[in-house]
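Table S4 entry, Aspartate aminotransferase.
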Amino acid sequence: MRPQVTSTEAHCIGTPRAFSSSIDRRLNTLVRHLVAPSLLLDSQIRNDIMSASPTSGFHADSVFAHIDRAPEDPILGVTVAYNKDPSPIKLNLGVGAYRTEEGKPLVLNVVRQAEQQLVNDRSRVKEYLPIVGLADFNKLSAKLILGADSPAVQENRVTTVQCLSGTGSLRVGGEFLARHYHQLTIYIPLPTWGNHPKVFTLAGLSVKTYRYYDPATRGLNFQGLLEDLGSAPSGAIVLLHACAHNPTGVDPTIQQWEQIRQLMRSKSLLPFFDSAYQGFASGSLDADAQPVRMFVADGGECLVAQSYAKNMGLYGERVGALSIVCKTADVASRVESQLKLVIRPMYSNPPIHGASIVATILKDRDMYNEWTIELKEMADRIISMRQKLFDALRARGTPGDWSHIIKQIGMFTFTGLNSEQVAFMTREYHIYMTSDGRISMAGLSSKTVPHLADAIHAAVTRVV
């Protein structure tokens, strides 16, 4: 009879040597009970028994041995390379995360206040949230992006679900559309955030692009945008950056937004807004939400993914929301029921802490006002970094027109540097950025601007 493996031995399966030793001991014991004592002196018999040990296959190749090492994420991989660099002058301008003048991560004062308030509330528990998340958070998030006086909000035509930051909101929205929308093609701007194509493809949508950026002017290719959306099939989904386009920092004007809205509505194109930087671009929450509100004001339907990573500095809390604006309250209710069926098998329900911080701030007038002040300070510092970098390049007589640095908006600047120039700056100046020449202005400070300007000047004059 084959001996039963105990729970202790089963636990050792992950460590073949320990498991083998345990089995060997059990077999020795078994042999002592079943074999004549004289035979125990025969080492050949003992070896034969041991050679039949069920552990013999544990030293074979892993069942995953065929797997290739995946490349680093093109954005997060920049930080991996930066961390390995021992240089004291290294500078990370890759990942979009705000830094202070001292180059340190910032936790907003109002966030600390909210957290302290939550900690002191002894009535709070750690129970699961509903599938759709924290109710106050959802209601307040919809009002923040759509406006408290939005007819869509007042008429309950909006369903909002708490998701895992902006990325999770996009993914949930993408999967919902793949299941329930009649068009499975989504048009995304070229270029766009590197994660967009992967998120929507894996959600089940077919991804196509529309022209957005003009390398010649380092501005908006508005004519190309209108032509591409004009030739898109009726009903197609269109991804739009609500403000502070990532990676270019180039936004349409309000007049251009109105033309985009009219074209999209005339062709029944479905807008899907990615709002990652509300308030962080201009310093005004209302100004940065204006494009979204224009599309909601005409009574049409749209989707909006929100993130609180940047504007509240809640990067690691993964706080976001997906709002779907519908024609009627009844449709919104049915849409929410289907969103639950997307979320439940994906992550069941969202985390409570970050959403509670956001809700605490948004529903308290004093805390909300303090947040808007801190938010504007962050936005203003980034704007000042743009001016300092532009002035530094002009002072050095760096070839080219660098006015796009102060014309672009938000966290990122699309410098216009090519991949060879980027590699040169990393190699010679220990400055890290994505290979397309995108830099995070939030990673700059008054102290590091001269170093960056020197590197850009050298790259432009020495590397074609």
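Residues 128-363 form a domain with the Aspartate Aminotransferase; domain 2 fold (CATH 3.40.640.10).
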